[in-house]
Amino acid sequence: MERANGGSLYDHMNDGTDSYSLEEKYTMASQMVGGLRYLHDNGIVHGDIKPGNILLHGRNALIGDFGKARDLKNPMHEISYGSPRCLSPLAAYHRLNGEEADQYDPMANEVWSCGIVLYYLFAGCLPYNKIFEQELNSDQCYSCAATLLHTTDSKFPMPTWNLKESQDEVGRWWTDKSSGLQASLEGINRGMAALICRMLDPNEKTRITMRAVEEEMRKILQPASSSSSTS
């Protein structure tokens, strides 16, 4: 089994010594997406994609901790909720209401979780922390995600709110390209920023698949690698 010598992505980014170049982060993003695409193609979900479960080895990113991984082809394998900060809106809505983790698409949820991790990789913090400039607890994260679900489909009620900022502020920040989610990824490839936003589509029915993410990322990064190889 391969060993990672660099700790987790969370540890690395949280200690204030982010030493990776932008090109290296693009490579790491591609590695994460490729690994998850391989799992999904084989009917498997990791179940707990978060910065703490992305392990670093040299300049490479590895997916670790498969304790919640499930084979979707096996009806005996029950799906469990992952990290509160990385749950998709629909998953967070059901978790907030104390319901079983079988009422959302686990692969679509994992695309969202990967989008959160990629945002963290490039922005240095989680999206909710960017909005509120503070660390949120689990219930606050669930509420933020469930609020996004309500903004895309009003049949889902607005969740209980215990933050001083208005709930409208969350939805507005998430969708405003000039000052919100996409704008907060300034400094990276515009195509990459737009792709991460597609991964963070609150509606799981229109959210991009992991295979499509990999294909789009390859197209986005190919020109950069081609130009660097010819220079």
Description:
By secondary structure, the protein is mostly helical. The chain has one domain: Transferase(Phosphotransferase), domain 1. Strands 1-4 form a two-stranded antiparallel sheet. A two-stranded antiparallel ribbon has the order 2-3. The C terminus is likely disordered.
Broad shape? globular
In CATH, what is the class? Mainly Alpha
According to CATH, the fold-level topology is Transferase(Phosphotransferase), domain 1
Q: Briefly note the structural class of the backbone.
A: mainly alpha
Low-pLDDT sequence parts? 227-231
Strand portion: 5-15%
Quote the distance from N terminus to C terminus. 37 Å
Query: pLDDT average, as an integer?
Result: 89
Strand order of the largest sheet: 1-4
Q: Helical proportion?
A: 40-55%
Q: Please give the largest β-sheet.
A: 2 strands, antiparallel
The counted number of beta strands is 4
Overall number of domains: 1
CATH superfamily: Transferase(Phosphotransferase) domain 1
Radius of gyration: 17 Å
- Mind telling me which CATH architecture this is? Orthogonal Bundle
Helical stretch tally: 9
Name the helix and strand elements from N-terminus to C-terminus, one letter apiece: HHEEEEHHHHHHH
What would the keywords be for this entry?
4 strands; mainly alpha; 231 residues; globular; Transferase(Phosphotransferase), domain 1; 49% helix; single chain
